[in-house]
Amino acid sequence: MRHVTLIALLATTLALSGCGKMKPLPTEPGGEEPPPADATFTRVQAEVFSVSCALSGCHAGSAPTAGMDLSAGAAYGNIVGVTSTERGDLKRIEPGDPNRSYLVKKIRGDSDITGGTMPLIGSITTGQRQLVIDWVRRGAPQD
User: Could you tell me the residue range of the domain that residue 56 belongs to?
Assistant: First the structure.
């Protein structure tokens, strides 16, 4: 009898351990696909900041709004790891974490932002917004 119980216990253990870890769904935490390698800062600058943000009277020139100059050559140092002036508990860009990056919140129009969704004048496409998010998810490298 003892032998039968031991075999049953061993069979149950093997059955449970054989299942392994199930792959999470893409909508579950940890289930996201890795961001595309072509989501680079060079693209963010050229395709988003330079055309929609680094404009006179906005985030460029001698007095950029919120002191955030998004013009080529200045943008990276003004956003990555820099504390937001509107939300002191967040960085403008928190490498690897779009949900803790105030600039991402501003371009998405999250409910916890101050002021309006960026850009105030014009708009950015879903693809441009996703490019910024993917770049931040990649760790916001200066590439």
Answer: 37-137
